[in-house]
Write a structure and sequence with these properties.
Layout: H1 7-15, H2 21-29, E1 34-38, H3 44-53, E2 60-64, E3 85-92, H4 102-118, E4 123-125, E5 129-132, E6 135-145, E7 148-156, H5 182-192, H6 197-206, E8 213-217, E9 223-231, E10 237-239, E11 242-244, E12 248-251
Parallel strand pairs: 1-2
Antiparallel strand pairs: 2-3, 3-7, 4-5, 5-6, 6-7, 8-9, 8-12, 9-10, 10-11
Bound molecules: biotinyl-5-AMP (BT5).
Amino acid sequence: MSDQPDQSSRYGDLDRPPLRAEALARALAADGWRVEVLPETGSTNAVVAERARAGEEPGLVVVAERQTAGRGRLDRQWLSPPRAGLTFSVLLAPPPAQLSWVPLMGGLAVATAVREQTGVDAVLKWPNDVLVGDRKLAGLLAEAVDGKVVLGIGLNVTTRREELPVEQATSLALEGADTTDRDTLLRAVLRALSFGEAQRSAYRQLCSTLGRQVRVELPGGDSVEGTAQEVDDQGRLVVDGVAYAAGDVVHLR
Ligand code: BT5
């Protein structure tokens, strides 16, 4: 046994303090959110979906300090070390006409909160990635459950380069953010989350996909290339006159 304290884990704790669960829950209750912080879970989207199926009302927010089976879209994974980021899911019940906008509005809320709180110039890649330049800062996953929507958000906060799973990724700390306080960020994201014409127009303003040459990789495996012209009233991306409701976009130039 060594007498020396373990400097690496000490550093980690200072760098990555736990969320202040009670203070968060109290502060956010005023806005109608019911916040629960779990030390560890598989996927917060799975937890909230399960609760939704059991009759939970909209407004539930489940945050995990550590996710062991974080999910992306399709069969992809979301990987983040404990307390290095925010990984959470919210249960929403938007009007049916707004359903297709949910993931886009989630991205907008993250980008808005990041810009306000940290000074980092976050932008959006259609449909729902939050980027700094061309590096991914946050990912969103919306899943419909019994007429409600589970919106999952993963945001890299203090993640170090070598901890990021892919080259084209970044964190607030790596981008020189003014703050990496996760309590502040979580509150700001939830405050910024809303649905309306002003938000749809803000989305289009911050969407760096528009005007670009893109490749859209479609769910079936096909792909198309062209100019991303607009995000239409249903939140679809219009490329050379054709609207796409889902797909992975690659910014070509
Ligand atoms: C997403 O999927 O970006 C949606 C991620 C949603 C994660 C949240 S965390 C809370 C909630 N609970 C869950 O289980 N999920 C949600 P997609 O667009 O498919 O992108 C996934 C891809 O992003 C992966 O295949 C990697 O290439 C990359 N990736 C994984 N972890 C990343 C990270 N920490 N930072 C940047 N990129 C990452």
